[in-house]
Amino acid sequence: MTELGGTTALMVLLAVLFWCVDRRRSALVISYAVAGLALLLSLKALFALPRPPADVMPIPLEGEREGYGFPSGHAFAAAVVYGGLVSAYDRAGDPRALAAAAALVALVSLSRVVLGVHYLGDVIVGAALGVAFVAAMDRVTRGDPTIGFAIALALSVPAFVIAGGREDALLGLGGAIGGLLGSRRLSVLPALRSRLEAAVVLVVGVGFVALVRGLESIVTTVEPLLVVLYAILVAGIFLVPAAVGQLEIGPLESTRS
């Protein structure tokens, strides 16, 4: 359950929605996620509040105790992504969509407390801050992903300085640059021609993400290369449909039934 608020799961979810459902709305939420990551890193570094002591963890979890604890990144990210999807897809008036998003955010948040990596206050503030951040981004971006990524870039630079070059800060900076470049091509991306093409886009996209994440372990100690790699990752997610759209293969060109 806690992984549903982690970077990998949320990135894959948003990428699949972008490739197969609605590009502009999904790109908007991706911009929220990248901007939110930068804001969260700055807040964590500024407050510099510790996590609970290690002896309260029911099971040892490698890497879960790194960094500061307040506010909770998982609770914040879950609120930004799941709440952002409800807002971007115009489902704010649907009680079922609101209940589903609220349940996911609550379960992710409580999982962090149960695992002993956050205090209850960490996750409450993280979730509340995430909801407020979505509301603010909705108002400022007015549905334009490019504006969202411009905000992400503006937040990522100070986050990089404050957080001291952490990997998450590099992801925020590179993701903002890649998103800003890729989102400018949204209007010229070709529409999916068939269900088969949608499946091919999904397979190619997942393979591309896996390739980039594999390269991440090779260049992990070189900060400039990591920023470039993360920029390629986000821009590439946006451009996968264009690459597959260039393939002139009969079955891919069949219109949907």
TrEMBL record:
This is PAP2 superfamily protein. Coiled coil: none annotated. It comes from Natrinema pellirubrum (strain DSM 15624 / CIP 106293 / JCM 10476 / NCIMB 786 / 157). SMART domains: acidPPc (SM00014). The chain crosses the membrane at residues 6-21, 28-48, 68-85, 123-140, 147-163, 169-186, 198-215, 227-247. Residues 26-138 form the Phosphatidic acid phosphatase type 2/haloperoxidase domain. Keywords: Membrane, Transmembrane, Transmembrane helix. The lineage of its organism: Archaea, Methanobacteriati, Methanobacteriota, Stenosarchaea group, Halobacteria. It comes from the Archaea. Pfam families: PAP2 (PF01569). InterPro entries: PAP2/HPO, PAP2/HPO_sf.
